[in-house]
Amino acid sequence: MPATEETRAKTATKRGVHLRGHVVNERVKHWFAKAGLVSDGRPVTSHGLRAGGATDLAEAGATDQELEDAGRWAKGSSIPRKVYVRPAEAGKKDPFDKVPVHNPRAPTGG
Q1: How much is the CA Rg of the chain, to the nearest whole Å?
Q2: 3-class secondary structure for the chain?
Q3: Among residues 7, 45, 66, 98, which one has the fewest Cβ atoms lying within 10 Å of its Cβ?
Q4: For position 67, what pLDDT does the model report?
Q5: What value, to the nearest 5°, has the Cα angle with vertex 9 and ends 28 and 71?
Q6: Distances in Å between the alpha carbon of 68 and those of 37, 44, 79, 89?
Q7: Averaged over 60-85, what is the pLDDT?
Q8: Cα–Cα distance between 3 and 72 in angstroms, integer?
Q9: CB of 80 within 8 A of CB of 64?
Q10: What are the residue ranges spanned by the domains of the chain?
Q11: How far apart are CA 23 and CA 49, in angstroms?
């Protein structure tokens, strides 16, 4: 849907200063492909940049306040941990940890 003069007047002070979400997504996809990167099957979007930053910070041990500041979320927001940090948390939960593993060097009962 094209921007109207009224919309432009409210959202941009100069021509070209305001980018729409779909344009940013197109640029991210373009540079992702240009860099020769391959997706893991999930869509490549500009939103992934925000999620990736939050995930990296969480994996590095960032506090809730550091996440809020970095992502410009409201103070006390649960969004960073609930929505963006899941991949970091999921990586720590390996379902195969519950599977017994044969260790030939382990002492045997007997």
Answers
A1: 22
A2: CCCCHHHHHHHCCCCCCCCCHHHHHHHHHHHHHHCCCCCCCCCCCCHHHHHHHHHHHHHCCCCHHHHHHHHCCCCCCCHHHHHHCHHHHHHHCCHHHHCCCCCCCCCCCC
A3: 98
A4: 92
A5: 40
A6: 29, 23, 9, 17
A7: 90
A8: 26
A9: yes
A10: 45-90
A11: 15
Q: How confident is the model at residue 107 (pLDDT cuts 50, 70, 90)?
A: confident
What is the structure's pLDDT at 26?
92
CA dihedral 48, 51, 54, 58 (to 10 degrees): -110
The model carries a pTM of 0.56
Q: Give backbone dihedrals phi and psi of 79, rounded to 5 degrees, phi first.
A: -60, -45
pLDDT value at position 20? 79
